[in-house]
Amino acid sequence: MFDEDLIASQRLTRSPRGEHRFLAFKIRLPWYRSLYLSCFDRIELSVNGSRQAEEDIFLKLYGTTYRFSDLTKHYSVLWFVLDPAELLIQHDSNLPSDRCVIVLTLFFRIPYHRHVFRQVSTCTSALQIEDRTAL
Description:
Mean pLDDT: 89
Shape: globular
Radius of gyration: 15 Å
Number of strands: 11
Structural class: mainly beta
Oligomer: single chain
CATH architecture: Sandwich
CATH topology: Immunoglobulin-like
Number of helices: 0
Number of domains: 1
Largest sheet: 9 strands, mixed
CATH class: Mainly Beta
Low-confidence stretches: none
Helix content: under 10%
Order of helices and strands: EEEEEEEEEEE
């Protein structure tokens, strides 16, 4: 519904965290009402054409970081429609130093609809890479 606004950043930050490197960028809820994290079934993400494993993708919301593949367990955490979240990707391979193309697809269900209603949102964006010393 709001696919073009799914990626809410112009910058992709690259930071070390422990023994791994992470990429991070802001995303917005691709719906017009707030949703529980348990509504998000699946994610597909590619960085410069390289598909990322779902177990390497995390969502940071209100100061808490969740593994994306575990979101269906968090039925009491509400993502308020106006609040951005941060998507973190464990990404240890090298990237170019300036720009990166992100293709993000979120698969989610709408819980307050009478029938099972599933939504798919896809957004592609070229983001400027910014290095940071820590996340």
